[in-house]
């Protein structure tokens, strides 16, 4: 796998932790109104609809990331910070890479969905629907396993440590997707070809010895056929 250089003209090619966290904050802010809208309908007597309103934020997050990365290589947050998801050689990614790099989030989302299903099955829905929104949240939280929050937090901490600790700042989902997050100006960057090294000419002397590289003789010195410089 061919990678872009770490730096080009003293500028870092790969995006570090700060721009990536800033981009994530903007992306969450963009999705927040949709989460609020989903929570307004969290008053159904049917468990399936209540489960749906809780799982909608996860579905929105995954769909947003996959679609934005597949189409443009960046979300709105990444666009604001001039960073982009690309292949390691700097070329643009496609839908396949966008799907693969979201696989860890898909697995985490499926684990959350399973926990929510088990929690709702354990609730007395008649009693649950008579509660205030804050009481509902508390009742649901008590029915959920603490692992629901501990595993994602541990995962994101590990991802952040990889961004800080690796020279190309690649996370687990970058490695799974075969991608890297780079500064947008370096998308499509082609490193200059290496400067060819000229091989010096070796001249053989009459006795079979090698004279080494021959450079132009100084002014006033002639170089005869035998390769030995002599005064004119």
Structural summary, described in words:
The protein is mostly helical. The chain folds into 2 domains: 7-186, no CATH class; 198-232, no CATH class. Helix content is 52%, strand content 8%. The strands form 3 sheets. The chain has a two-stranded antiparallel ribbon. Strands 3-4 form a two-stranded antiparallel ribbon. A hairpin with a 2-residue loop joins strand 1 and strand 2. The model is unreliable at 226-231 (pLDDT under 50).
What features would you highlight for this structure?
single chain; 232 residues; mainly alpha; 2 domains; two-stranded antiparallel sheet; two-stranded antiparallel ribbon; 52% helix; 8% strand; elongated; disordered C terminus
Strand order of the largest sheet: 1-2
List how many beta strands DSSP finds.
6
Average predicted confidence as pLDDT: 81
Helicity range: 40-55%
State the domain count.
2
Structural class: mainly alpha
Number of helices: 9
Rg, rounded, reads 31 Å
């Amino acid at each position: 796998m061919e990678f872009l250089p770490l730096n080009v003209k003293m500028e870092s090619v790969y995006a570090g932790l700060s721009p990536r966290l800033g981009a994530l904050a903007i992306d969450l802010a963009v999705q927040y109104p949709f989460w609020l809208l989903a929570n307004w309908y969290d008053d159904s007597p049917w468990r399936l609809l209540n489960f749906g309103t809780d799982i909608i934020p996860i579905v929105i997050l995954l769909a947003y990331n996959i679609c934005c990365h597949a189409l443009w290589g960046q979300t709105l947050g990444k666009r604001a910070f001039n960073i982009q998801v690309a292949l390691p050689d700097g070329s643009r990614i496609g839908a396949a890479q966008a799907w693969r790099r979201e696989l860890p989030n898909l697995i985490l989302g499926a684990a959350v969905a399973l926990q929510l299903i088990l929690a709702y099955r354990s609730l007395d829905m008649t009693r649950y629907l008579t509660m205030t929104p804050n009481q509902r949240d508390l009742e649901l939280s008590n029915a959920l396993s603490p692992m629901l929050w501990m595993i994602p937090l541990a995962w994101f901490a590990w991802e952040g440590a990889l961004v800080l600790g690796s020279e190309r700042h690649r996370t687990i989902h970058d490695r799974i997707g075969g991608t890297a997050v780079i500064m947008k100006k370096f998308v499509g960057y082609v490193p200059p070809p290496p400067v060819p090294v000229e091989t010096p000419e070796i001249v053989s002397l009459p006795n079979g010895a090698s004279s080494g590289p021959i450079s132009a003789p100084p002014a006033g010195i002639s170089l005869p056929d035998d390769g030995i410089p002599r005064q004119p």
